[in-house]
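Feature request, filed as a ticket because there's no other form

It would be nice if the structure record came with a short human-readable summary line next to the tokens. Right now we just get the raw output. Example of a typical job, pasted below so the devs can see what we mean:
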Amino acid sequence: MNVADILTDAASRVPAQAASVLAGISQETLHAMPNGANSIAWLIWHAARQLDLQLADLTSQPQVWEDGWSERLGVPRGSKEIGFGDGPADVEALRIADPEALEAYLKEAVDAYVAYVRTLSETDLDVVIDTSWDPHVTRGVRLVSLVDDATVHLGQAAYARGVVEHWSIGF
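Raw output as currently delivered:
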């Protein structure tokens, strides 16, 4: 298995995790904020947004978001907004009527990630892209970070659903 296959495999798990969390979800559960925490809708939206925005910055390509996803999801947020710094009122205001559309947006962002990864050589992954950190961040490290961030937020979404509904992901 080569590096592109590993990154692709890791990323391809993200939409499947979201599909499990969103399957049969009610609007009440989707937008519940257990103990004031982020809602499932917000967590999955943020997972997709951070991946989409950071990938666009990395590739110098347009974000998937810019293809009308703000309107389709009913989330009036600009292309630079990913939820970083959102407080409880911001999380509560993020309302998504169609969980399937949210799942589709995340999948499209992951598809863009996979398409990009497939264009890279292993030497491309070693290129330093950010010198503001110590150690400096390579393209490969950033790509791992994007998937890691999405996975963490999907785990939080699964936990939130469990808290709200006594639900289990089933594996």
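Something like this underneath would help us a lot:
The chain has a mean pLDDT of 95.
Residues 92 and 167 are 22 Å apart (CA to CA).
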